[in-house]
Amino acid sequence: MSKLKNNNNHDGFNPYGIDKLANIKPDIKIGFMKFWFSGAAFFVTFTALAVDTYDILDRFVLLVLILTLAVEFISNKVIVWMNNDKQPTLHYLPFQIKRNSILSLLASFLYVIIMVLAIYYTVELLMMVGIPSIGMLMFGFDNQGIDPITFGLLYFSIDWLWIKAKAWISKKYTKSR
Per residue in 33-45, pLDDT tens? Predict the structure, then answer.
């Protein structure tokens, strides 16, 4: 058994290796992390809380606060920690502001507000056009609205657009200098 654990003659994925996540590309890890945090925050605020206790605006405020804390103190820190010479990850950050400052927390708050508003209006547009959410497909069309999986996928998609736009603007800005 000990020979299997120390076997270095393998192709690709080593199931007995110490770090099984090392072979997964950072963009997949970061994308899944952003999808999961946004879906979990939506689940906690809209699905897990009692319907008759909290107003919809209270839930949106709580969603923005939870997502702000997740983006600032978990997601951005993990992205910075994953950065190395072989696989740079700093371009996945939503903004380039000095970490551990109040300005970074305010920028995360503003970023999350923009993301939640963009997701809200995207969902409204999709519902108006007649495109169902994943929750509607799974649980029936009488449950109209958004679910954590759809919210997470839209968050991931809009965040991807945000990062691509940020890279394009940065490229244009450095070209003009």
Answer: 999 999 999 999 9
